[in-house]
Design a protein that fits this description.
binds 6-O-phosphono-beta-D-fructofuranose, about 550 residues, alpha/beta, single chain, six-stranded mixed beta sheet
Length: about 550
Amino acid sequence: MLTDLAAWKTLSEHYGKIQSVHLRTLFANDPKRAQKFTVEALGICLDYSKNRITQGTVELLANLAEECGLRDRIDAMFRGDKINITENRAVLHTALRAPRDASVQVDGKNVVPDVHAVLDRMSAFADRVRSGAWTGYTGKRIRTVVNIGIGGSDLGPVMAYEALRHYATRDIAFRFVSNIDGTDFAEATHGLDPEETLFIVSSKTFTTLETMTNAHTAKAWALATLKDEAAVAKHFAAVSTNAKEVAKFGIDTANMFGFWDWVGGRYSMDSAIGLSTMLAVGPDNFRAMLAGFHAMDEHFRTAPFEKNIPVLMGLLCVWYDNFFGADTVAVLPYDQYLKRFPAYLQQLTMESNGKSVTLAGERVTYETSQIYWGEPGTNGQHSFYQLIHQGTKLIPCDFIGFARSLNPLGRHHDLLMANVFAQAEALAFGKTVEQVKAEGTPDWLAPHRVFEGNRPSNTFLIEELTPEVLGKLIAMYEHSVFTQGAIWGINPFDQWGVELGKVLAMRIAPELESAEAPELKHDASTNALIARYRGLKRQ
Ligand code: F6P
């Protein structure tokens, strides 16, 4: 067990010494602290000096990573070993962004040519739709693309579309439907002309209830105007690993873009699941994003742990989660284009590492994944930052800022970035009671105006948000998640925890729909809720 390792025990002792040391002291004692704890790679600068660590902490965390076999785990993933042991699958999202001449073997076959064959087909399709060469059934240009998917088949596409909107064509509108709530479909298609609408049904399995329900509704919605089944071929494309189900649904497999079982849903936005992204930003920008992913993959694979951005991020998460008991992490991008980035990271981090048994099936005796959440700055400052500054909880923060705005407007960007630096500074150093009183605050009010400080944060400073940078950022978090999973000895690549609710919902659905009152055999609470729902629904 992790907690029995020598490196863990040493870290625990070290934590005892450092837990009450203030960042004010750490900075006062070392004028070079900022330089020492800043790492730069691939144009991403990470200042992690405002963390409650010393050089010794970093060394001990790196020792822990070594003792947990992180190096071997990284090699095993990139090599294509079946590290997703509960599903007997390789984990090779890194192959999705490997250059054309690379070789990545799965079961003795180099998969890179297949990856690029799909990318080439996607590019040809995207070019035709974007140029207007691809027309709908009645000969009109496609003006709106609607991506239907959920989880990894939605969050990545939505996030990337929003993040790269600056680079997107304005000739085509993009909408996203995920929720099984009919309102999502109704609002996303409101005002659209079926003759000018292209649906992309994105689902790895092509069996997901939400996506298939929305896809069937979309088909009915389109055919209500287009009247001819043959129109489906011009208005529907599919992204899936399941050609059989795609054909059964009625989508021409010529319009299907495939991927593979070695790509997890939450790691799939750079596969064909990114078709809507490519349609929006064009094949060149999409490939630039893939190049960014690949550059970060190589950094993660080769950089020594002390200089390895994702490894350092992952280790800091372990440090706060397991030693300081910090249950959550706030991700705070100071860029409006990254407004969906925290939501995207929620699936990536929590569906991956929200596990409570080790690879050997033993119950863990320590905490695993933190809860990720956040909002773009500066909005959060006028909402939940109060709690981060003065509340009773320790919430490590990731601030993400850019040196140049894609929309330079007067003073906006300097003011935005002033807030990034100010927030990190305030969290770390706070304001003592002496400072507060020296400002003339009366004694009774002083405690309310004290900022304890010593609240940790990372600050990422990057030149500009480009497709390449987005790829780097996503891969950075992917590999941080991997690092954490390797330390905790869990499998970040399965998601059995989503199954039970799905099965129960399918049992309950007919009980809500049947004309006759069904015999309910759930617990008393569920039975009563179902009965009440049926009664209210009838009124
Ligand atoms: O909810 C679980 C899940 O399997 C996610 O992991 C996945 O991203 C999502 O459902 C969608 O799955 P699919 O792409 O197969 O429709």
